[in-house]
Amino acid sequence: MKKIGILTCLNSNDVCTRAGCLSAFRERRDFFSGYPEDMILAAVMTCNGCKETNAKEPAEDAGILEKADRLVSEKISVIHVGVCRLNEEKKECPRITQICGLIEERGIKVIRGTHKE
């Protein structure tokens, strides 16, 4: 049985319930299409905030490093990154990009997307 996870932006907590991500997974649509029924969603995580609220870069943030290592210990094979990763200019947040790199360094595949905007 394969396990996947979802990474979202901490700032999206103000307006997001993760319902779009979760329903896309449950219905196996959008970025989750083609996944078998026995694939399980085993982790949902957020970044630890922007530079204004968290001065630590992801590679130096003990919390982010612990989260990335936990994904490995839970045998997560794929992380999907929510649409909240994009800023107002429709560019990926640099911190999310760094976190994705840390996750990929641990052998976990990263897919940018969960559901359509």
Automatic annotation (TrEMBL):
InterPro entries for the chain: CGGC_dom (IPR014925)
Pfam family, one: CGGC
Domain CGGC: 3-115
Descriptive protein name: CGGC domain protein
Source species: Blautia luti
